[in-house]
Design brief:
Layout (H helix, E strand, L loop, with lengths): L10 E8 L5 E8 L5 E7 L3 E3 L5 E3 L2 H9 L9 H17 L4 E3 H15 L1 H11 L5 H24 L1
Parallel strand pairs: 4-6
Antiparallel strand pairs: 1-2, 2-3, 4-5
Helix pairs in contact: 1-2, 2-3, 3-4
The structure holds zinc ion.
């Protein structure tokens, strides 16, 4: 990377820091020519394979866009959505893959969204899993209820 001030191609790293979410490294660099300092961010490449076969870089904003419709009218903030997108990125990066299918992102959205808002989760799951009957909704709601019951049991046992 060229120095942004003088275009010199050489710089030395004076400090490296991993971001809080662990997905990128920020390096403080000093130009060997003009001595000025600048910061670079290094992120492992992660591409999404769209249904058409086209590759595009993974972006959290796309995850948020995908979930936004499901949370409409629900008590969910932009910070909550950012949290879902972060969880999705962490889940995907934890697999070590550099390419993932778009539908794997949908799968990774389900657990954090469920944690956040059950109605939004049902809406998202209905589109993502292509629910086509009331039975599908009933099955999903039953699964939510059963998990809630287990959570209560677990608390009572403590
Ligand atoms: Zn320079």
């Amino acid at each position: 990377m060229h120095c942004p001030f003088c275009r010199n191609p050489d710089s030395r790293v004076v400090d490296s820091r991993t971001s809080d979410d662990g997905t990128s490294i920020r390096r403080r660099r000093q130009c060997t020519e003009c001595g000025r300092r600048f910061t670079t961010t290094e992120t492992a490449s992660l591409s999404v394979v769209k249904r058409s076969g086209v590759l595009e870089p993974f972006r959290r904003e796309k995850v948020i866009e995908g979930v936004r419709k499901a949370v409409r009218g629900r008590p969910v903030t932009d910070a909550d959505l950012a949290g879902v997108a972060q969880a999705v990125e962490e889940t995907i990066r934890a697999t070590g893959a550099s390419q993932i299918d778009a539908n794997e992102i949908g799968l990774a959205v389900l657990p954090p969204l469920r944690e956040l808002d059950e109605v939004a989760y049902l809406r998202f799951a209905s589109v993502y899993n292509a629910f086509d009957s009331l039975d599908d909704f009933e099955a999903a709601i039953r699964a939510l209820r059963e998990d809630q019951a287990h959570a209560v049991d677990a608390e009572e046992e403590r």
